[in-house]
Design brief:
alpha+beta, 2 domains, 259 residues
């Protein structure tokens, strides 16, 4: 009696197996390059332009890897293909998609969002930075808030505006300070006499520094809270400052309602 022999893989199946391996290698290399770009910039190993180009090219190569992996998945569906080849192709497809998707999403964001890096809840009279000015020495973006930025913000972020709290200014200030700390910002200045808070937020991957100022203004028996978030580098912030302002005001409103 002869032991059963495995069916030899067909030429398409063998091609798909090799293609899946190549796609997997591309995905792993692109993932490693994209993940290393941010820390490399933060530690001074790479300049910003090179780090951003690394992510861009990683995403472009990963798109090709995803196409190759998809083809490998289809070829691995033939009866003669090995189950290991199917798993390799599926893993390769997943890795390449995960590498390519975030940069592609950011590119889509750039096309639809205003190309600004300064967001204020009061475009007519934005809160002014005082304590963080020495920290911004050498920053590419000035602290001026031109009329063109106000116009772009109104068009791109019409929902952003001041928050009214039913709290006296001193109580509103304390709640605002608690919310700023809960956001894990680095508090640069806490000036209760001026009802002003200044802080610096650091992005996770690249470690970009964005400065934030919170202004409390008395209004009747309550208070009005205005927030401004300004990037130190970059022309477009991909909506980061607007999202930060929204998240802060949402947290502050929740804290105030729980008082």
């Amino acid at each position: 009696m002869h032991a059963p022999t495995s069916t030899p893989a067909s030429r398409p199946a063998r091609f798909g197996r090799g293609l899946g391996r190549i796609a997997l290698a591309l995905g792993v290399l692109c993932a490693a390059a994209a993940l290393a770009a941010g820390p490399a910039y933060r530690t001074g190993v790479l300049p910003l332009g090179v780090a951003l180009q690394t992510i861009r090219w990683s995403a472009m190569v990963a798109v090709g890897g995803a196409v190759a992996a998809m083809l490998a998945v289809l070829l691995s569906l033939t009866p003669s293909a090995l189950s290991r080849a199917r798993r390799t192709a599926a893993v390769a497809l997943l890795i390449n998609v995960l590498v390519a998707a975030p940069p592609l999403y950011l590119y889509w964001q750039v096309q639809r969002l205003p190309k600004i890096h300064d967001i204020s809840t009061d475009p007519n009279d934005p809160p002014r930075f005082v304590a963080v000015l020495p920290l911004r020495q050498g920053a590419r973006n000035p602290v001026d808030y031109p009329a063109s930025t106000a116009a772009e913000q109104r068009k791109g972020y019409p929902d952003i505006g001041p928050l009214t709290l039913p709290l006296a200014p001193p109580a509103a200030f304390e709640r605002a300070l608690q919310a700023a700390r809960a956001m894990r910002w680095e508090i640069v200045a806490s000036a209760p006499e001026d009802l002003r808070i200044e802080a610096t937020a650091t992005t996770l991957l690249f470690g970009f520094k964005d400065d934030v100022v919170v202004r409390i203004t008395p209004q009747g028996a309550g208070s009005v809270v205005d927030v401004r978030s300004l990037s130190r580098v970059g022309g477009s912030d991909f909506g980061t400052n607007a999202n930060r302002v929204r998240a802060y005001l949402r947290r502050l409103a929740e804290n105030a309602s729980a008082a």
